[in-house]
Amino acid sequence: QVQLVESGGGWVQAGGSLRLSCAASGRTFSSHVMGWFRQAPGKEREFVAAISWSRSSTYYAVSVKGRFTISKDNAKNMMYLQMNSLKPEDTAVYYCAVRSDNVVNYDYWGQGTQVTVSS
What we know:
With 119 residues, the protein is mainly β.
């Protein structure tokens, strides 16, 4: 059973930084893609960033490109999201998720961590 546990959320003023972590367990990750998503109150969940577990290719939403950096530590089964220059519109619950790299939909999701950016 795959388990994903996010941490690192919190409150920060606009312009500040936070680093989210996602601890993955329950299987060996090889041909997988791990991603970050977020959902703000009253809005649909949206894609933030993703990283290929084997090739380390990265993908970003336009809204966060240049401000957020996704990374991973294969040995520790950890994924990270460094968020800089945070804006109030980045306020949301952030989720990590994983899928096989030959499918579109993410199979497993964490419980989420709240990020609040005040103006």
